[in-house]
Amino acid sequence: MQSYLTSGELQKQQYYQVIAGAAAACQPDISDPNVSNEKLAELTAEAAMKVVKWRIRQAKDEYDHSALLITDAYATVAIAYRRAAAAYRTEKQMEQLGTAAVHLVTIATSFMNAESQQGTAQK
């Protein structure tokens, strides 16, 4: 998140694209209305963490900006959804980081939705 905070507007848009994509990719395919939001958040966080762990194992170049950006995006999604699942109740520092991650995922998703709607309106 540190690199996001110090990035310029174009870089932030790139972050938004990658984070929104990661968040969408990790949504569980569950249509059962009885599944709680907390459980859905846990499943989303687990899916994102699986991707992070896999990407870390597969990493070949620690200076590959695109690869690091994608891994960071999935980590952000995992932290955000763990926060949403109330996993950080006893860890104040992680709770604060989780809150920041939730905000970033929300901003990214909102930005991409607005971009999509704007593109549709122009057609």
Short note summarizing the structure:
The protein is mostly helical. Helices cover 76% and strands 0% of the residues.
Highlighted features:
single chain; mainly alpha; 5 helices; 0% strand; globular
Describe the protein in words.
This protein has 123 residues and is mainly α. The protein has helices at residues 2-5, 9-25, 37-58, 65-84, 92-122. The chain starts with a helix and ends with a helix.
Spans of 5+ residues with little confidence (pLDDT < 50)? none
Kindly name the structural category.
Answer: mainly alpha
Computed CA radius of gyration, to the nearest angstrom: 15 Å
Spatial gap, N to C terminus: 35 Å
Order of helices and strands: HHHHH
What's the total helix number? Answer: 5
Average pLDDT number: 90
> What is the number of beta strands?
0
Q: What would you call the shape?
A: globular
What fraction strand?
under 5%
Task: Tell me the helix content.
Answer: over 70%
Main β-sheet description: none
SSE layout and pairing:
Blueprint: H1 2-5, H2 9-25, H3 37-58, H4 65-84, H5 92-122
Helix pairs in contact: 2-4, 2-5, 3-4, 4-5
